[in-house]
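input
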Amino acid sequence: MNRELTLSDEVVTVNGHSVRKIYGGFGGGQPCILAKQVAELHERELMHINELISNNSDWLEEGTDILNLKSVVVRNDSETLSDFLLNFYTRNALNRSECVWLLSRQGYALLCKLLESPLARQIYKQMVRDYFRMEEKSGDDSRSPHPGLAEI
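output
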């Protein structure tokens, strides 16, 4: 799987905090977000977000929902990953951290479900609504691994 990450010039502002969009990690062009960005958006300590991820590993599947960028091997490209992360972390913070979590869109939705705050609920609900609107537009629920869910 392609783990290349791209930092976009696009900025999203949520809760008065602006973050630049990241794409890749879970496949080309897929939006994703760092746990550090989640902490900023939801006004939580990064330590709290990391603990939430660690304590709910049964909810978040490695490689699909989350990636630990500290354990991702990028052949002949490790400098690029490090340079990318320096847009968000100091070198000292990167060296000290055991985990640098990257969440897919699905992983972020699951994390919002676990955060239990008004903002997290709002974002989670919007992501679910967007998903079902997209499914309605495509008119094809045969892709669903759970037949009947589209009927709910």
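quick obs: Residues 143-152 have pLDDT under 50 and may be disordered.
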